[in-house]
Amino acid sequence: MAGFLARRLLNYLVLVAVASSLAYMLAAGALDPRSNYADRTPKPPPAVVDAQLTALNLNDKTPLIQRYATWAAGVLHGDFGRTVTGTSVNEDLARRAGVTFRLVLLGLICGSLVGVLVGAYAAVKQYGLFDRLSTGMSFLVLAIPVVVLATMLILVGTWLNENVFGAKVFLVSGEYSDGLDTGFWGGVLDRLQHLILPTVSLSLGLIATFSRYQRNMMLDVLGADFIRTAVAKGLSRRRALTRHALRTALIPVVTYFAFTFGTLLTGATFTEKIFGWHGLGEQLINSIFTNDVNTVAAIAFLAAIAVLAASLAADMLHAALDPRVRTA
Amino acid sequence: MSLQEEELAEELRQPPRAPSRLRMVGGRFFGSTQGRIGFAVLAAMFLLAFVGPLFSPWTYTDKDFTAFLQPPSAEHWFGTLQTGADVYAVTLRGMQKSLIVGLLAALLSTALAATVGAFAGYFAGWTDRTLSWITELLLVLPAFLILAIMSPLFGDGQWVLFVVMLALFLWMVTSKIVRGMTISLKQREYIQAARFMGVPPVKIIFRHVIPNLSSLLIVDATLNVSAAILTETSLSYFGFGIQPPDVSFGTLIADGAKTAVYAPWTFWFVAALLVVTVLAVNLIGDALRDAFDPSAARKVRR
What we know:
The complex is a heterodimer.
Chain A: H1 2-30, H2 35-38, H3 46-55, H4 64-76, H5 89-124, H6 129-142, H7 146-165, H8 183-222, H9 225-232, H10 237-267, H11 269-275, H12 280-289, H13 293-321, H14 323-327
Helix pairs in contact in A: 1-13, 5-6, 5-8, 5-10, 6-8, 7-8, 7-11, 8-10, 9-10, 10-13, 11-12, 12-13
Chain B: H1 3-12, H2 21-31, H3 33-51, H4 87-123, H5 125-140, H6 143-150, H7 159-168, H8 172-185, H9 189-196, H10 201-212, H11 214-237, H12 249-259, H13 265-292, H14 294-298
Helix pairs in contact in B: 2-13, 3-4, 3-13, 4-5, 4-7, 4-8, 4-10, 4-11, 4-12, 5-8, 9-10, 11-12, 11-13, 12-13
């Protein structure tokens, strides 16, 4: 087992290295930081622009291989270089990672919890009204892209603010209001008001996926012999369902949870951008527009690590929860 | 009846016609409500996208300089945009593009998944290791980032390149499934027989392995259509997909979202059409899966 894990880990390390190198090469080759200086008035002299670009390791007159070597040496020392404005990529991304983490964690917990409950209940009452309704709803939600869903939520939120509440209940831009002075609880309330709509937009899709998944798993388990045995031995149906069926059916869902968490670190891009949260995903889009090669490469690196760590965690969780995997 | 006569009768009797698989699957597909609704809606969408523009006096490049941002009227059925463009004409044009991009990307990615997966599973050894490694590498690379970086290349009617890139990031998961199924198919008698008769491996893959995975691939291709349309919308929304002056669902939704608060018709018509299209494709995919494999759907029924 240890040898298998070590080999797997090594393979992952190579994958991360190749993937982020490829991302750097593509970004450095396709993006053009020099054009950032073209629109400035007064126009800076070419020598100054060259010096500036060289200092940031973005000069396209330096061969790509040489720029890559400088960048890679930096990354090996834990330094992702500087942004186009000269600030440290590390500091910028560390702050943004916190924002993304808060948003994704809450959205994922809401989404998976509600999704599992909906799916489990739908399975127990198969072909009932609730089952049909939840199936129909999840089909509908899965057909709406996140960008459209987020826009719809903003429209509905502002409409409700104006016509139902008569006050700003849902705040649709940013993580908190600037310069707010209402004490600790006022701050918490303000953050909550900002949090509701982005969380809903993240979790709706997750609820749909998780409930479909949980329903199928639960149906598989419900027909199994050990549930019938449990009921035959005198357990109440409710106890058999929660203690035996739900627990077994949760194993694949837990695995899926770990995997989704990894992919969501950049998967929340659209939600962050539309709701104006200054997280990693928003920066990904901004950095492409501002030709910020080092930031793009750093985010690609983080995304690769997140995906691989998540799939490793999913495998290990699966092995820890399901004895059949361990012995096999 | 003598023995010879009996043999003759045996020969003369027509064998009962084997039910054709296509007819069986088709029957099951159209027998389900999901399948019927999905097919009808998608057909209607195609009809709307490709025949609908003929009924409107406006084309998607026309600008009506007497009507900016006007609500729906007899003149402009879906209203007009800020530029004076007719929403009905523009929306249908965007729908054409999105449907074509979605279909092509799905076909391409499924073909790629089938080929790579089958080769990896059939040849094993180094071929398998190399192909699986490439598959994993593409899974690790953030697709959105690569497509976004390459987006300047998609201008000037180069949308075919966009389709290719889109397909390049859609095939990996299916290819892993195909690989697993090929490994088990390889042990089957008919594949063994073909091998011992000296049929070259490439021919075995395309004549025997891939056709036997057709049900999986057809369902996958259908679901990939909706995945491709959704990805295209998200990319175009941020300006990384279909480039102006061409329009697609994504670019229209991005424009509409800006004016949606005071001009709802610029957003809701195109959003509704997008959701209905994707929903119809998903329904078809689900119904097809049940039609190909009725045991999977009924297994859990008690």
